[in-house]
Amino acid sequence: MDAFDDVRPAVECLELLPEPVAAAIRDWQGPVDVKQLLHVDTDPAIADTALLVEHYGSWLLEQSANCVVVAGKRGDTVTLAGCLVLSTTRVDVNGVVRRELGSRKASFAPMDTAVGRSGMEYGGITPIGLPADWPLLVDAAVAEAPYLLIGSGARRGKLIVPGEALATLPGARVLEGLGRPVGA
């Protein structure tokens, strides 16, 4: 991740992060040393993965993961969850997610719900700091990655985090096949 000019331990940049993310880093309990969670300063205008790849190069796509908020519904009960997959894949919402949440129907959560309930900005949602009562579904390929570029909770900035740290976040469930190749 040498392409970034400003790379620092995230614990030294808490003021740049939304409160739920800053609190999770401040209270870090994972098996990975908190100093291994890095913050990189990026332009908020290029927060989306495709724009980042266009700006920094195609190598970035292979070293990034995306976190999306999904809503599983069964009767009148709606369960929100975070899903973390490699950027080269898409979340299997109607298969793996629906089954894992025990829902009749699953879909991506509306933007206002995802933003309002997570306390994060759209285009920057990260698994670090999601509400404690949400399941966090993590693709096995994410857990196995040495490190990945993920959202920081804000459109400005990204986090570089070891896969092991992501797999051991509160509420995390590592699943095979959560991320499906694009077009599959």
TrEMBL record:
Gene3D superfamilies linked: YbaK/aminoacyl-tRNA synthetase-associated domain
InterPro entries attached to this UniProt entry: YbaK/aa-tRNA-synt-asso_dom_sf, YbaK/aa-tRNA-synth-assoc-dom
Pfam families associated with the record: tRNA_edit (PF04073)
Residue ranges occupied by any YbaK/aminoacyl-tRNA synthetase-associated domain in the UniProt entry: 45-168
Coiled coil: none
UniProt cross-references to CDD domains, sorted A to Z: PA2301
Name the UniProt record assigns to this protein: YbaK/EbsC family protein
